[in-house]
Design goal:
Blueprint lengths: L7 H7 L3 H7 L12 H6 L3 H6 L4 H19 L9 E5 L14 E4 L3 E5 L6 H9 L11 E4 L6 H5 L6 E5 L10 H11 L5 H15 L15 H15 L4 E5 L8 H10 L3 E5 L3 H6 L2 E6 L2 E7 L2 H25 L20
Parallel strand pairs: 3-7, 3-8, 5-6, 6-7
Antiparallel strand pairs: 1-2, 1-4, 8-9
Helix pairs in contact: 8-9, 9-10, 10-11
The structure holds adenosine-5'-diphosphate and magnesium ion.
Length: 345
């Protein structure tokens, strides 16, 4: 651990629970935030140390031990944090070798996976979820940070590498939204549960068309609302560095905002999609055919411009959906002048 290099300020930032350690040991660190813990301890006068029978070495060792234990307990693993995911080639359904050398994806990157139904998009996501080592039908291998993944990723349940978002996310518990979020926040030992729940509900309502609140039972959330809640929960409360999304189109949520949120939280995002907007939001897209990866395409400047047009169209569709839902009628005026579609289309 590099605790010895961090200032007290940085320690508090990175491991908010150290505040309890300081309090518990009656250490007043106020005004010493720019020092390392060792420097702070060294600044104690001899008299003070003798009066209080303070063992300097032990204080430092105990803090290190405390941070290690808390990290394990919380499932934090930033010392071995995930910064990249690499896919190594396997075989398509006919046993032909995939021709790419390797695909490496970094944090805050979005990769889409496109290809016909049955071509193997979900299979690729499953390879990643299982950190395949040539032991799945595709024969692919997955590396984490450029290395063979530790078994802890495969078998640890509280330290999950991957969070999955899919169409069929249903709540089975009889809880309110508040109770659900509280449970999750508690299990992640969040410091300020109330404010994080506020943040989640606010963000979730920003994604879902129809508002819900903390007292809404999770079982009565609409599909869009529960997906919005799960996405925000995954972005803000989950420690999983990789998020896999399998075809969440038509999900009744603001998909772009949802992805922005995941990217802002430093996740590696892979999503299988048939939705052109989602495919183009990605920085790159993996093209799958007959079970094999046949191409990796960087989203071009021209495609990014097309994406802007698609987003406008999507905005129109969403507004129309809301208008119709609210009993309004539609007029051509609503869309005229919004789309910049070239005459020769
Ligand atoms: N490279 C491969 N080798 C063998 N079977 C594969 C391969 N890729 C996909 N499959 C199988 O093909 C079927 C369809 O794949 P799937 O991932 O569900 O397609 P998609 O999600 O694109 O509709 C699945 O049973 C999957 O296990
Ligand atoms: Mg699929």
């Amino acid at each position: 651990m590099n605790m010895n290099k961090l200032t007290i300020e940085q320690l508090k930032e990175k491991y908010p629970f150290v505040i309890d350690y300081f309090k518990g040991n009656k250490l007043n660190v106020e005004g010493h935030e720019d020092k390392t813990f060792q420097e702070y301890i060294d600044s104690f006068g001899r008299e003070y140390l003798e009066d209080w029978a303070v063992d300097r070495k032990k204080l430092v060792e105990d803090l290190e031990e405390y941070i290690e234990q808390m990290k394990q307990f919380l499932g934090l693993n930033e010392d071995e944090g995930v910064s990249s995911l690499t896919i190594l080639p396997g075989y398509d359904k006919d046993g032909n070798a995939e021709v790419f050398k390797e695909i490496t994806i970094k944090t805050s990157e979005i990769i889409s996976i496109v290809g016909p139904t049955g071509s193997g998009k979900s299979r690729l996501l499953a390879d990643i979820e299982w950190t395949a080592q040539g032991d799945t039908p595709t024969g692919r291998k997955i590396l984490i940070n450029g290395e063979l993944p530790d078994n802890k990723w495969r078998f640890s349940s509280n330290n999950r590498l991957v969070a999955q978002l899919s169409q069929n996310m249903n709540f089975v518990m009889d809880l309110t939204v508040a109770e659900f979020l509280e449970l999750h926040a508690q299990s992640r030992l969040v410091e300020d549960i109330e404010s994080i729940i506020d943040r989640i509900i606010h963000a979730a309502n920003g994604l879902a068309g129809e508002e819900f609140n903390l007292n809404t039972p999770v079982t009565s959330l609409s599909g869009g609302q529960s997906r919005a809640l799960m996405i925000v929960d995954t972005a803000i409360l989950s420690s999983s560095p990789i998020v896999l999304i399998d075809e969440i189109e038509n999900a009744g949520i603001d998909r772009k905002k949802a992805l922005d949120l995941l990217v802002a939280e430093d996740k590696i995002v892979l999503m299988a999609t048939h939705d052109p907007m989602l495919a183009l939001i990605a920085d790159r897209r993996i093209v799958i055919r007959n079970g094999g990866i046949v191409d990796i395409i960087e989203t071009s400047e021209e495609e990014k411009e097309i994406l802007i047009e698609l987003e406008k169209m999507d905005g129109i569709v969403q507004r129309m959906r809301n208008d119709l839902r609210n009993g309004n009628t539609l007029e051509f005026n609503d869309i005229e002048g919004i789309m910049k579609i070239p005459i020769n289309w």
